[in-house]
Amino acid sequence: MIAANNTRSTNNDPVESSESSPITGAANGSSRLMRQFGSLFQPAAQRNDPAGYVEFGSISEADVHSGRTLGTFAGVFCPVALSMFSALVFIRVGFIVGNAGLYVTLLQFVIAYVILLFTVSSVCAISTNGAVEGGGVYFMISRTLGPEFGGSIGTLFFLANIVGCGLAISGCAEGLIQNFGPTDGGDVGSIPDGRWWRFLYCSSINTVMLLVVLIGAEMFAKTSMMILGVVVVCLLSTYVSFLSMGPMEVAIPVENSLVQNATNKALGNYTGLNMTTLASNLYSHYGQDYTSSGNAVNFAVVFGVLFSGVTGIMAGANMSGELKNPSRSIPSGTLSAVLFTFLCYIALSVLMAATTSTFLLQNNFLFLGPVNLWPTFVTIGILTATFSTGLSNLIGSSRVLEALAKDKVFGSLLNFVVKGTLKNNPIAAVIASWALVEAILLIGSLNTIAQINSVLFMLSYLATNLACLGIEITGAPNFRPTYKYFTWHTAFIGMVGTGVMMFVINPIYASCSVTLCLLLVFALHFFSPASQGAQWGSISQALMFHQVRKYLLMLDSRKDHVKFWRPQMLLLVSSPRSCCPLIHFVNDMKKGGLYVIGHVKVGEFSENDSSNDPTIEEYTQWLSLIDHMKVKAFVELTLSKSVREGIQHLIRISGIGAMKPNTIILGFYDEEQSKDFFEHENSPYKTSEFDDNGIKLFPFRRSGEQKSLLPTDYVQIIDDVLRMKKNICLCRHFHRLDKQMIARSNHIRYIDVWPVNIFEPKNDDPFDVVSQFMMQLACIINMLPVWKRLELRVFLCESDPQPEPSTFQMNSAPFERPAEHRLSLLLKSLRISASIHQIPEWGKDMDVPRHRNILKQFTSQSDSNQVMTEENINRSKLYMQRVNQIIRDKSNATAVTFMYLPAPPKLSTIDYKEKCHHYLDLLTELTYDLPPTILVHGINSVMSTTL
Asked: Which residues cross the membrane (predicted)?
């Protein structure tokens, strides 16, 4: 324990509790800075902070040893280019052009690439704003949007990579069947065809990919560079063939049952470069898809297939854990690959439209082989492009799964992934991904898988754009990406584009994906470790800050209206150990208003004191208290030379703008022994959370210890509050409050209001400003579920005898006395359901007029400086004891009592200190042995009878 110098305990502030704890674990500023920034110079594998910091300089030797060996070309350009070629470049561009026509095809490519370009801008902005660890897009989103959205989107992105891998493998198997399977009913030497034969081929390809990926990312990078070279050569051969090959007829595949039968072998025309052919392919001619049982083709189906082939922009980001310099490689490699593939696709679409008939484009998706100068090149291109894309997706999915496991997003569910890592290669994650790909392959149809793939990737792209849009809108100072071609406009267009096109492709798949995402968000919000949000940072906090600041500026206190008044509470607490029920009760009474728990620590902030401000270290303990109590409150702590001065500070500085406390709540100043609700056996607040190695946090005054606050100071605090134009409540006996007993007991039935100033009772206005404020608080409590079953009772205490009713009044209607009648009308106009109870003995036995002048001496009602006599003091005490007896007789079934608090004596009066003592003594006698009691003094009208 380290205690602040020049700090003394204030165990008995006026809040029915004790003083806060000493400081624990204080550390100096320099050591904290070293702990924060020293980790920047450690290898990535040794850093405990998964969020990372901004990279400094080039790749270090430590990164080389930790597996970061890939550069821009091998680690980003090649995987992205190959993933964006995928099965589309040699297998499905003809399907797209043949159905959508050249104009719509070019439009779809532009739409797809605009979405991709803006999403790439968002990826580049995030990746150049700090160090990017393994996990790619999941890492970026989770460290920006927080664990809930990051984990859910990361899971969907993992599934998207799984589906993408299945798509690539299906395309690869389709190329094998087309080139080596039966072409006219079963040639000798050809491989067999059929649904389960195709599944066998797909499984074999998937297993080969598994073996390659198990070798490691470096082997994958070397493989991808070689495959990209092969694909580019094969693609060039296709362009040359379009320009050089003349007209020919191409056979329609045997499996195309839409146009093919046993007796008639259908043929399609390849015309070579021909303007007539180009003109016939300019507009849409949607037909049927022969690979999916003749399903109708439309714009959405075509776009889904097209977009599934260009979803590989994250392939480079997925390799972030193996890149030497992710912040530089990801933007340059991804953008260059996007431009390269866009030009290739546009050229291929134009050449296909100018050389191939619509019939052939729609009915033979693999016509490029027969029309190529070297048909083998197309076969090689199909196999290599799809194989490499599958490799990219398989390794990408395993890296995302590994990142999810390391972050413990799903708790211990994925521990097997962390344990199954060998030399930075997540073996267990790769095998798990391989098994899920096997399940996807059972779907069969490539075009069906393509739509699912597109929707999942679009959802992950939408989240990436949303992350960038949110962090840009918040204006966070630490968002300073070195990638300069990013604005909130690009993120917004990318987000809207992906959201719209996702539902255009397939509304059912899109709705299911969004629903799954939201379910994951809620599940992770309730079950994921809470520490991750604080460790990574969550954009929700930045967005809330941005919006709250904006609305606070719009909230103008000059426009306040009594119709919309609500209590904004400042509860002054010395030690929460002894006032847990009061903290909960005030939380009920705030009615959606501001609730601040304030605490004064007595001490001096000396320039010669080397220790930190004690309130800084204690603040986290008070926040933990708020979590334990489950109340919706803020905490304000201050260090002051005296309790009175500290309370003045808290009243002035608590809240912000128009959201400032209007009601101050204090515990009562009495000699009752405090009760430790954190240790009491039957307490609902029992906990050991605030016991630090045997030392209790939030200590309070023990039996026999002297109070640090004098009665005069306490009364002056009450006077300060009223002079600062704040309502005040003094709460007594709240250690007796048991909400559980109130909820289940049939004996407790009432909430009582005594709207009479006991020190100066009058009949003129039974419901003045103070009484209205008291009634408002009672109504608020009566609205809550636990308190709703209780009846609200208002006690009318008339001090002067009433005239007897006339004969006419008695005969015409039930007679109501004037004060009771006025009170009844007022309650009705205020829409308050309460019963009125007369106290007959009040006017008969109490001799109120006689005591009224005596009691004035102890309040601010009198400006006289007359000296108090012993006789008057004794008479006043006896009077209060008699009033107390009357109230106790009516309170056997009362849960809580609201009473009128008279203003304290004025500072200018003679014998001020003595009057303060007697003022407190009279309040003590008044509230002796009552149920939980609130003495209330309001200063402004808080009720309205108008609409």
From this structure: 73-97, 109-132, 153-176, 196-215, 227-246, 296-317, 338-361, 373-396, 427-446, 452-473, 485-502, 508-527
